[in-house]
């Protein structure tokens, strides 16, 4: 039997998934599958995945290239599909978590905070949606659409990381537990890393597309992998925020509304017992 914060008691629990295995599996699905796609594509399809629009030599294939060839694309799409549902759930967890932390926010920031946590939710939602779409609409099938979805993913991802880090700080009102400090530190590190990699990605993309500089696309691809894995690392910090939580499936038994109701229930139960004894 488990107690919920405000709803009641959960009984007959048929499923209990702690946050640690949930977080590890959710992040490992894209992380491991991307690694497998990269290694197998480089070993068996090197020339195919290293083609460039400028026809210059390339040594590091892009994520779109290694996940867009078969059979790698089947693995990638399957893992992204399995990974997306828990990610959408975390969007809602994060929003409700920030709502529950509103009492810790400075009164002058509260109205802005309540608005920004809604923006934060939708940024996270759109980011996850774009990740799913970009996996299923490959650059080989429809490059213009794939490119636009990728741009939206990058913008929403960066915006979410920045805003979420700010809201995390506001929701603690400067009072951090030991776990909060670790989570906040890694959030800042991951955001700084992905922002730096994004700058490198944009610069190398221009050098490749405009000037056809040899090796520029390899730098672009390397920045892509840094962005991908730091993005996963940032989202993994949610484990630190929810590490004492679990997924539960069971029967919810609400608490009595007030003490009088609780007392009346107890009296009723006692009367029933007395009648049974009398009979």
Automatic annotation (TrEMBL):
GO CC annotation terms, alphabetical: endoplasmic reticulum membrane; Golgi membrane
Chain ranges of the CWH43-like N-terminal domain: 19-244
UniProt keyword terms in alphabetical order: Membrane, Transmembrane, Transmembrane helix
InterPro entries reported for this sequence: CWH43_N, PGAP2
One GO BP: GPI anchor biosynthetic process
Entry keyword Protease: no
UniProt keyword Hydrolase present: no
Transmembrane region(s): 20-44, 119-137, 149-168, 189-211
Name of the protein in question: Post-GPI attachment to proteins factor 2
């Amino acid at each position: 039997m488990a107690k919920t914060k405000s709803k009641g008691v959960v009984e007959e629990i048929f499923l209990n998934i702690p946050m640690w295995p949930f977080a590890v599996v959710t992040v490992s699905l894209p992380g491991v599958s991307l690694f497998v796609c990269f290694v197998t594509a480089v070993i068996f399809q090197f020339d195919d995945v290293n083609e460039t629009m400028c026809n210059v030599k390339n040594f590091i294939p892009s994520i779109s290239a290694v996940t867009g060839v078969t059979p790698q694309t089947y693995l990638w799409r399957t893992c992204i599909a399995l990974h997306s549902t828990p990610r959408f759930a975390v969007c809602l967890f994060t929003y409700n978590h920030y709502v529950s932390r509103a009492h810790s926010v400075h009164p002058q920031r509260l109205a802005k905070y309540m608005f920004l946590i809604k923006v934060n939710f939708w940024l996270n939602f759109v980011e996850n949606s774009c990740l799913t779409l970009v996996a299923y609409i490959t650059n080989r099938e429809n490059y213009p659409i794939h490119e636009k979805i990728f741009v939206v993913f990058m913008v929403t991802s960066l915006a979410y990381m920045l805003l979420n880090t700010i809201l995390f700080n506001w929701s603690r009102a400067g009072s951090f537990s030991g776990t909060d400090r670790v989570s906040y530190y890694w959030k800042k590190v991951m955001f700084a890393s992905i922002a730096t990699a994004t700058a490198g990605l944009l610069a190398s993309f221009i050098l490749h597309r405009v000037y056809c500089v040899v090796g520029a696309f390899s730098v672009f691809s390397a920045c892509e992998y840094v962005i991908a894995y730091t993005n996963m690392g940032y989202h993994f910090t949610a484990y630190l925020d929810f590490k004492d939580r679990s997924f539960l499936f069971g029967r919810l038994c609400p608490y009595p509304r007030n003490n009088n109701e609780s007392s009346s229930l107890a009296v009723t139960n006692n009367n029933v017992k007395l009648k049974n004894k009398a009979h």
